[in-house]
Design brief:
- The structure is a single chain.
- 25% of the residues lie in helices and 31% in strands.
- The protein is built from three helices and four strands; from the N terminus they run αβαββαβ.
- It has a four-stranded mixed β-sheet with strand order 3-2-1-4, covered by helices on one side.
- It is elongated.
């Protein structure tokens, strides 16, 4: 019952975590570039490094797949 299982190994692709980010929580430099938006979507590596910020969720998933990553949603 205590068998270890590496979930990332099955797909062969690294996982990309997609989560929404409130624009007001971003540094001023990024907020000024997100005019008119309240939410952006971040693409993170499995180690937690932010790889990208994009306008919408669908684009975040496409971006991850184009870079041979398996996107999953994080709340």
């Amino acid at each position: 019952m205590n068998t270890k299982y590496d979930f990332a190994e099955e797909s062969g692709a690294p996982i990309a975590y997609i989560r929404s980010v409130a624009v007001v929580d971003l540094p001023e430099e990024l907020r000024s570039q997100a005019t008119g938006l309240k939410t952006l979507y971040a693409v993170h590596s499995a180690e937690g490094e932010r790889l990208a910020l994009v306008r919408d969720r669908k684009l975040a998933f496409v971006l991850a797949r184009q870079n041979d990553m398996m996107p999953v949603t994080v709340h």
